[in-house]
Structure formats: C-alpha cells, structure tokens
C-alpha cells in the first residue's frame, strides 16, 4: 500500500517490485530492480527513505526515518543492500553491498560502510560507525566510532556502550539523565507520540491517484 503522508507520497521505479501488503508511507524513493517484500514497512515520517538499485527489503522488515532528535534522520540504503526478515533499520545510512541478516537492528545516526555484514540478531547502536567490510557476529552489540563489538555476557560493557551512544538524544531529542529511566522513557514516548500524530491525516493511494 502506498500512503501519502505530510503531503508527500512514495515514488517507485517501474522495474521495482513492492508486495501488495507492504506499506510505503510518505517521502519514499524505491530504485530500479529493488524488491520490497511481504509485510515490509517503509515510513518516512518527517524525513525520507531511499532504497537503492537492486536492494532487497525482506519480509516484515521496518525502515523508519525521523525528524526529531538532535538532527533529521533519513534512512539511506545504497545499491545492492540486503535487509533480512524482521530487521529494523531506523534513521541510518547503509552503504552499498551491505548485508543485514534476519532480526538485525540498526539505530539512529549509525553508518555502515560498504560491504559491512551484520549477522542474525545483532544490534548496531546509535551513532555507530561500522567500517567497510566489518563483520558484526550474531547476537552481539556494535557501538562506537569505529564500532566495538560487545558480547551478551559483557553486561557492564554493554551498559556503558549504550549510555555513551546517546540513543535518547539521537532518536527522541531527550536529554534526561541515564539513571532516570522513567523520566527518559516518558519523554521518549511523548516525543514519538507527537511525531506519529501526523498519521491521522494519511491518505491511502490507489493506482492513478493524482
């Protein structure tokens, strides 16, 4: 389904394929021979999403941009990027020939260099730079610039990496203290609720809609 959002509507190259139950919302550009598969959601919010040539966005993946936080966060997939099933890609840049496996999450302000590989269930945190050709192992956390990989058993290191990433500021424009989680999460939901309110005016498009 193609949806006009904030006055902008998706543009899909004639050689691309968008599954009938995928949702493209707002300022979305889908390039030549790209494939947007069943149940995928591409949501531009107040920014934009670009999908390059011959990209694959697999089943139930979510690509969401944002215009709140410390700066606008579009989603940019360069050519020949694979985004696996149930992956979540938020406000980040993915350079050419990257591979994002099933259940991967890439957060706001991250950048993946060409040929980077993010294995099943891994998380690339906010503002992280994954170098060219770098491999992030399954079910690990990559954080920092350049990325440092933290394994699930490294609890203290993981907490420090998440704190230092400044996720709340990057994603929600929230600057509450790290230790004050209730206040931070309250502010985060308020910010996202306000952003998502614009969907009340969305207009589903049908073929031939002017």
Quick structural gist:
The chain is α/β, with parallel strands linked by helices and 210 residues long. It has 3 helices and 24 strands. The chain starts with a strand and ends in a 5-residue tail after the last strand.
Describe the structure.
The structure is a single chain. The chain contains three helices and 24 strands. With 210 residues, the protein is α/β, with parallel strands linked by helices. It is globular and about 50 Å long. The mean pLDDT is 94.
Q: Uncertain runs with pLDDT below 50, 5 residues or more?
A: none
Q: Please count the helical segments.
A: 3
Q: From the helix content, strand content and strand pairing, which structural class follows?
A: alpha/beta
How do the helices and strands follow one another from N- to C-terminus? EEEEEEEEEEEEEEEEEEEEEEEHHHE
N-to-C CA distance: 15 Å
Our estimate of the beta-strand percent is 25-35%
Rounded mean pLDDT score? 94
Fill in the keyword field for this structure.
alpha/beta; single chain; seven-stranded parallel sheet; 210 residues; ten-stranded mixed sheet
């Amino acid at each position: 389904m193609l949806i006009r959002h904030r006055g902008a509507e998706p543009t899909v190259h004639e050689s691309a394929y968008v599954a009938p139950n995928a949702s493209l919302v707002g300022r979305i550009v889908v390039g030549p021979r790209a494939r947007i598969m069943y149940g995928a959601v591409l949501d531009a919010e107040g920014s934009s999403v670009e999908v390059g040539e011959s990209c694959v966005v697999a089943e139930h993946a979510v690509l969401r941009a944002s215009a709140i936080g410390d700066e606008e966060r579009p989603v940019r997939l360069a050519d020949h990027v694979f985004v696996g099933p149930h992956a979540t890609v938020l406000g980040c840049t993915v350079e050419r020939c990257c591979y994002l496996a099933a259940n991967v999450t890439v957060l706001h302000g991250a950048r993946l260099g060409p040929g980077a590989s993010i294995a099943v269930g891994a998380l690339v945190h906010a503002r992280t730079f994954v170098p060219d050709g770098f491999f992030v192992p399954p079910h690990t956390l990559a954080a920092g610039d350049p990325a440092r990989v933290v394994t699930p058993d490294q609890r203290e290191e993981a907490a420090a990496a998440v704190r230092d990433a400044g996720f709340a500021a990057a994603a929600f424009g929230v600057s509450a203290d790290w230790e004050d989680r209730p206040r931070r999460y309250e502010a985060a939901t308020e910010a996202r609720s306000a952003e998502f309110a614009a969907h009340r005016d969305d207009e589903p498009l049908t073929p031939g809609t002017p």
